[in-house]
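Rotation project, supervised by the postdoc (A.L.). Task for the rotation student: set up a whole-complex structure prediction and record inputs and outputs verbatim in this book. Inputs entered:
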Amino acid sequence: MGIVVQKFGGTSVATPRKIHDAARKVIAAKLAGKQVVVVVSAMGHTTDDLINLAHGVCPNPPKRELDQLLATGEQVTIALIAMALHAQGHEAISLTGGQIGLLTDSAHSKARIREIDKRRIQKELATGRIVIVAGFQGITEKGDITTLGRGGSNATLVALGAVLKAEVCENYTDVDGIFTADPRIVSDARKIDRISYDEMMELSSVGAGVLQTRAVEFARKYNVPIHVRNSAHEGPGTWIVAETQAMEHIVVSGCALKKDLTRVTLKNVPDRPGIVARIFTAVADEKIIVDDIIQNVLDDRTANISFTVEYGDVADLQPVIERLLAELGGSATYEKDLARVSVVGVGMKQQTGVAGAMFRALADAKINIQNISTSEIRISCIVARKDAEKALRAVHAAFNLGKKSPA
Ligand code: ASP
Ligand code: MG
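Outputs recorded:
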């Protein structure tokens, strides 16, 4: 019997009525002959509310305790979904991350999944029950509760899909799928029907909400298709699948924006083997993600090294930088209010001129490009935060990604 793993995000379980709607989708899959495992997020804005609550009590809450608190959000939802299923005449059991042995490392607030013990889930499925699992949470070897980072229920979804060898991971959310750009910013953004894992990973790493990069990476590794779809209707959403030949013809699949970046520049650090390694190891040890790294070697045997981080990471980063500078010499500057606009598409591997077209679009919109970075299937430009939305619209139009003229 095929297994389907369904996930309902916070907005799809925000009220008792929506919980019953979600339960109906679960039952439909069950009646279609599937074994169904359901992953849920905390109801509505519960996670944000809990974070605010924590900060009302303690300005900088210990991360272990914050995880302990945040994990309660999902625990509420699993019990309610199981009750809704019971009310609709179906057998279900709710399980926490700890109860399914979802083992993580001990990086509280952004833990990584190490393994899942699928025996409990399989045992429950074998008795004909629907299994409801709390997303976003796990447990360390020592038995401490961890969380997987904001949006982490998707990681739970995909990890379960992989270990259970599910036919599909259905990601129910409040949007119709993945769009060529954020429809709140670009009014003619179009829903994408199919997109490759690689493109989706690039898109989510450069700011397309919906799915964490990590979750997609996992799906690719185990080749589990993800279907992102709207819980409000039955229509198809976006399938995230392995790359097919047909996809190569699409030069640019989508574009995305990441706002609120800060550029950190370390000035006049020694230009010697090992220095850059030392800097970025120290930053990585804080689990801070850096991007857009540039090094310029100066005449006096020192170098300027700059990189971007999310503004929210600056507070954690500053003490690390201060320690490094005390050791290495040099100084640091922090430039806030930057954004990165990116275009992504597997067709770029074959097609030339994509970078030129993107730069032209930004130039025509009178937007200054501050920095450029690329991968095989992505081009990104750093621009001023105030130009961010305009930049996204300009690039989206330049590649004809809109509804009226599908690329
Ligand atoms: N409830 C958590 C959050 O809001 C996890 C999730 O929704 O995926 O980030
Ligand atoms: Mg949520």
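Student's summary: The first strand starts at residue 3 and ends at 8.
Supervisor addendum: The mean pLDDT is 94.
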